[in-house]
Amino acid sequence: MTMLPEGHIVRATGKRRIPLPEREKVNPGEIDAARPVELAVLAVRGSTARCLLSGTQKEITLRSGGLWNICPGDVVKVHARKVWICSRHPYISGQVEGSQPDLESFGLTPLRLEDLGRWEPKDHYWGEKGEPLEPWAEPIYKRGPRPEFEMEQVIPGEDPEDPDSDPITEAVDLYHGGAFREAWELLMDLVQADLRCLDAHAHLGNFSFDHRVKAALRHYEVGVKIGDFSLGLAFGGLLPWAAVDNRPFLRCLHGYGLCLWRLGLRDQAAAVFERMLWLNPTDNQGARFLLSDIQAGRDWKPEEKGPF
Q1: 38-47 pLDDT, tens per residue?
Q2: Is residue 154 scored above 50 in pLDDT?
Q3: Across the chain, which distance is largest between two alpha carbons, in Å?
Q4: 62, 90 Cβ separation under 8 angstroms
């Protein structure tokens, strides 16, 4: 690892070097082994997880055999067996009992929303002139003008001046080239650097979708929750696909809806696809077709197109 002037460290993952914040370390004396310890999970790598002591920005690494169903964004309860320091970094080992997404424990800053003006449904293309609106489109049209926004996109390690510096694209290339572990590690470095990297959550879900649908659901869910946290409860605007920084959140929603449908949770999946249409009536992701299939009583089938 190499120190940077800004107080960050970088770690190589394949060809990519991701800047990781150098956070304060947990003092082993802060851990009461007689009580369950709550840890907020930043990244998971096999039998280890880089965590924050819940409610703080202090780092510690968890070693446990029970991490296969844990994902970044979870808060876990650990019955500590041992707490120690190795190479000036704190470690904890123990049994994991219970986990759930809990973003409040991470102290996240909401992603910024840039105002893009107002969307006018009368100026939107709804099909050939004279044809009736589709059922999904009617309430959106009747709602009238609404504000449009672009959500801040966070990608640690990306150089805006270098189009070839995108670590998400590199992770996808690694994955499709058969370097599955390297692709996974790169995405985990991204969420460890900044849990708000929604595209990393989306692609962790994509990489899991075919063979571990419940794990994929949880990766997408964390991305959706971070986006919702940034939007706030009263959000009623649009996040158009044409504003490229909105795409990570829309991808998380898409994958989340597909997983719900695949798991037989059709009503919940339909609600996700309806929401996608309200956020982006242009529907670049085909949510209207997925919604139509669900409303027609169709189940998800293996030949259905996945999120990739």
Answers
A1: 999 999 998 9
A2: yes
A3: 73
A4: no
Taking CA atoms, 95 is separated from 7, 55, 82, 92, 133, in Å, by 33, 20, 11, 10, 56
- 234: tokens are 């009263």
Q: What share of the chain is helix, strand, coil (3-state, %, to 5)?
A: 40, 25, 40
What local confidence, expressed as pLDDT, does residue 91 receive? 96
* Gap between the Cα atoms of 97 and 179, Å rounded: 32
Q: Classify 216 in phi/psi space as left (phi over 0), alpha (psi -120 to 50) or beta.
A: alpha
pTM recorded for the entire structure: 0.91
Cα separation, 187 vs 14, in Å, equals 12
Torsion of CA 129, 131, 137, 142, to 10 degrees: 70
> What was the pLDDT predicted at 305?
61
Concatenated DSSP letters for 224-286?
A: HHHHHHHH-TT--SB--TTSGGGHHHHHHHHHHHHHHHHTT-HHHHHHHHHHHHHH-TT-TT-
Using alpha carbons, list the distances in angstroms from residue 267 to 14, 255, 292, 301, 305. 41, 15, 12, 17, 19
Cβ-contact 60, 84 below 8 angstroms: no
